[in-house]
Design a protein that fits this description.
about 160 residues, three-stranded antiparallel β-sheet, alpha+beta, single chain, four-stranded mixed β-sheet, Nucleoside Triphosphate Pyrophosphohydrolase, globular
């Protein structure tokens, strides 16, 4: 039923939730991954992200798994930055800030061709402003991480 009390059609996608991770090192650099996106027909620069493997998987567990798989990184400190619904879909994108990073070996699956790029924090934010980064989850996760860091950390972001 529509808001005007008439019947109509509504289309939506039933999709698995996603964990999106902003990995930030002790020097204030952020790791972004570049990978091929078939829908856009181009390589996109994004935060680490991936689908939860089941309806019951803990989003933080998925975030930790995706960080290690895509970058080889593990983190000592995790901060939940909230979640949001993707328009016209049932999925929630769960955003995290990962700090206290240790580099290890990545574990890409057969569908992934990922390159990791490190950017100074302010440069990563500038990539949002100049249109280099167009990925929605990346935009929201980076802006939420920036707000968190400005609110909770004394040092400059």
């Amino acid at each position: 039923m529509r808001p005007d009390q008439k019947w109509g059609k509504c289309f939506y996608l039933k999709l698995a939730d996603v964990a999106a991770v902003v990995p930030r090192d002790a020097q204030g650099n952020v790791a972004l991954v570049q990978q091929w996106r078939y829908v856009q027909g181009a390589r996109q620069l994004e935060v680490v992200s991936g689908c939860l493997e089941s309806l019951h998987e803990n989003p933080l567990r998925a975030a930790k798994r995706e960080l290690q798989e895509e970058t080889g990184l593990t983190a000592k400190r995790w901060t939940k930055l909230g979640g949001y619904y993707q328009a016209n879909a049932t999925r929630i994108i769960h955003c995290y800030l990962a700090q206290g990073l240790t580099q290890g070996k990545n574990n890409l699956d057969g569908t992934e061709d990922i390159t990791v790029h490190w950017y100074p924090w302010k440069k990563a934010l500038a990539l949002l402003q100049d249109g280099t980064v167009t990925h929605g989850a990346t935009t929201i996760a980076l802006l939420r991480a920036d707000q968190y860091l400005r609110t909770h950390q004394k040092r400059n972001v």
